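Appendix B. Worked example

We walk through a single record from start to finish. Start with the input: the chain for Porin, Thalassospira profundimaris, length 356.
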Amino acid sequence: MKKILVATTALVAVSGFAVSASASEPIKLSVGGYMEQWAGITSQDDAFDNKNAFQSDTEIHFSGSTILDNGIEVGAVVELEGETSDDQVDEQYLYINGSFGQIRMGEDDGAADDMGLTAPAVGPVGVNDGDLTNWVDTYLPDTVQSSGDDPKITYFTPVMGGFRAGVSYTDSDESKNAGGSGGNLGQGTTEGLPVVSAGLSYDHDFDGVALGLSAVGEHKGQGNWYGLGVNVGFGNFTFGGSWSQIEDDYGINDRETEATKDTNNYDIGIAYAMDAASVSLSYAYSDYGNRSTKAMSNNISPSANGEISTVDLGLAYQLGAGVAWKSSIFWFDDDNDNSAADNDGYGAVTGLRLDF
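Next comes the structure step. The output line below is what the pipeline stores for this chain.
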């Protein structure tokens, strides 16, 4: 009799859970994404080959979520690349939202990459981790280094008094050697090294003055990078900048045979928005020691060390819902330790971005 009572009680509990679980809505995926189509003209040193005058970038995003009976949201995001024949899926991860914050599991940017602030820029090229290298042969300043979309777990705290913290962990892949191809975790950017990525941000509005601050960094292998960012908005203006230092032994791969130095980056910029139009002017500088030494298309192998300055004047105009016309006029001067790889020049790029 006791066994029957226990079995009956268990059956009722399971049935109650099933009824409770079925009360939540099933996950239905929605479709979004963007398409960018650009045309540009550039001028650089004669030693370097001209790049394609047309560039494009397209991603299709699938996302969906459901709210459980306990109020916790569970969802998924999958981003499909439209411009590659190799890794067709850009990012894919599961997330859980609740009063405790957010947890993500899957292939996504790390906490530092998500939380880092940089100078405002509205054009299609930009000076900080933008599309400059799509148009000319140069080093690209980057104050918020990304360890890539390798499998990881990330936790973001709730926003408390304008503050939010985040931390990510990417496991090592012992079957992958530095500089080799991905192993059983599919890692393609961390060289098989464990990565801890963390950030702290602050966002608050003080009587019409919006202040954003960030402190971010990562530890990978034996090295680190760390950086600071600030954005201040008042009226139609946004002013901001960022700084970072990358230690010389952070994620060493195809430059491990050359003596390198720490990399120092910074950018500064201002943007003005009025109705449908916005304009920005930004500058970035890098005293770098982490450049890839692989030969470029003209068989010139740059040194890992050098300096670059670059300026971008950006314009954006919202033509309609989800349709923006954007343009950039840019200049750069790259002084590499291998004088054969020195390059400077300028260019202009214009085109449309569609968000859907």
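Two observations about the output. Residues 263 and 288 are 4 Å apart (CA to CA). The longest helix spans residues 2-22.
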